[in-house]
Amino acid sequence: MSRHLPSTRALLVFDAVARCHGVGKAAEELCLTHSAVSQQLRLLEQQLGVRLVQRSARGTTLTEAGRRYHAQVAGDLLRLENHTLEAMAQRPDGVRLLVGAVPVLAERWLLPRLPRFLAQQPACSVHLQVFPTQVYMDEPHYDVGLQYDDASWPGARVRPLRSERVVAVCAPQSRWRSAAARGDFRELPLLQLSSRLGAWQEWLAQAGIERHPANAMVGHRFDLFSMVLEAVRADLGIGLLPRYGVARELASGELCLAHPFEGDGPRGYSLFVAPHRADDPAVQAFGAWLDEQVAEESEGAISPA
Asked: Which phi and psi angles does 160 have, rounded to 5°?
């Protein structure tokens, strides 16, 4: 069956004409003659049966159909280029492991430990990408994923990896530190993570703190854990963060516990493995190594720099 796909050359020419607002500048960018660019445009228009550009004495502009078509194919060309560059970047003597992870877990827990895995698997190239939270994907493209237990990945092999402990932290010289240490949270500004608006309420209940705000969901709100962390540094209030996410700052003294209680996080983390990679040696080695890291952390043997 024939496929209605224009040539890549014609699409690149059309993209250049659209971006450069004219045939002449597009020809210069592509190192082609004016007539060669015009010919590719004509061939593309003939194949589509639609006029894409409007030629006049004042130059070349896109038609309405041309603007719509360019808005669609420009992103496709960029993705095609990225796919090609990714294929070119493959090591001929090694393997690639594409890992999708929750950003805070990737940055604060996985990356400080990753050199140990690569020392064991020197032929492996790890590509670390964001595994978006609370987003449904029919078929994620990762080989393995580190996500919350309730994440959706149809068909993946899933097993629990680690739990989460959360702590209330503040800047060492915070004006809120004394009240928090006494367990008086009534007037304290509680920094909120947008995806966990009930987290403070749960933590206060676990800690048995009776002097709490009337509404524990009120306060400055941030989309990322890293934003909450910086807000704590700026003494905008008290932050509630995963213990592993602030271990480095607590160890260095940059931040301190606002209250000694350490609570259970709302969700744990699981290891997701793509069904077609379940028996791959690199994937199995990565899963076994993750288990070792969790076990050592539980025993207090690891303090990542």
From this structure: -60, 140
List Cα–Cα distances, 58 to 15, 17, 22, 23, in angstroms.
20, 15, 10, 12
Helix (H, G, I), strand (E, B) or coil at 96: strand
What is the distance between the alpha carbons of residues 274 and 140, in angstroms, rounded to a whole number?
8
Diameter of the chain measured on Cα atoms: 79
Residue entry with tokens 């006049």: 56
| All residues at 6 or more sequence positions from 90 whose CB lies less than 8 Å from its CB, including other chains | 96, 125
Helix (H) or strand (E) holding 146: strand 144-148
What pLDDT shows up at residue 274?
94
Rg of the chain over Cα atoms, rounded to whole angstroms, equals 27
CB 240 within 8 A of CB 193: yes
Spell out the residues 6+ positions from residue 59 whose beta carbon is closer than 8 angstroms to its own.
21, 22
Q: What is the mean pLDDT of each run of 10 residues along the chain (305 residues)?
A: 80 91 89 90 91 81 91 88 68 79 94 95 91 72 93 91 96 95 95 92 95 92 94 96 94 96 92 93 95 86 44
